[in-house]
Amino acid sequence: MLAALWAQDKTGLIGKEQTLPWHLPNDLQYFKKMTIGKTIVMGRKTFEGMRSRPLPGRQTIILTRNKNFQASGVVVMHSLEEVLTFASQQSEIVMIVGGAAIYKDFLPYLDILYRTVIDGNFKGDAYFPEINWQEWQLVETLDGIVDEKNKYAHRFETYKRSK
């Protein structure tokens, strides 16, 4: 089973120069809660935006066309098909965590979407790909807490594929 996990602003913005355009500790905690103990899949640029360090407590797959790419502590795969085959053999959900091109490639194969919507407009250069929302059913919404550390209103949404 494949799921995508991402945070976006009201316009669908997800990134700025391979990093997040906002600081929202609640979303980082949510990301950790949703991915700990699971396999996460990301593109090379997203990985490099995280200073090329795998996240603890997760198996990390880097998807890249660069056949020479190597990094310590991660599994490197070179095709969508390779990741799909791997995911089909897993009992746990495999989480797709970015960037934009990776989300776009995997969108037809996703079963669940975990989206954090941040009530704001930020500047950046990467947007989540267009989704045919008629194929998805919202099954849960949870409002995030706004406080001195989490300055932006936000909500956590879960969708399951309906078609």
Automatic annotation (TrEMBL):
The protein here is known as Dihydrofolate reductase
DHFR domain location is 1-161
* Keywords from the named record: NADP, One-carbon metabolism, Oxidoreductase
Pfam families to which the protein is assigned, alphabetical:
DHFR_1
What is the enzyme's class at the highest EC level?
oxidoreductase
Reading the lineage from the top rank, the first entry is: Bacteria
Q: What is its EC number?
A: 1.5.1.3
Q: What does this protein do?
A: Key enzyme in folate metabolism. Catalyzes an essential reaction for de novo glycine and purine synthesis, and for DNA precursor synthesis.
The reactions it catalyses are: (6S)-5,6,7,8-tetrahydrofolate + NADP(+) = 7,8-dihydrofolate + NADPH + H(+)
Gene3D superfamilies, per the entry:
Dihydrofolate Reductase, subunit A
Please report which protein family the annotation says this sequence is part of. Belongs to the dihydrofolate reductase family.
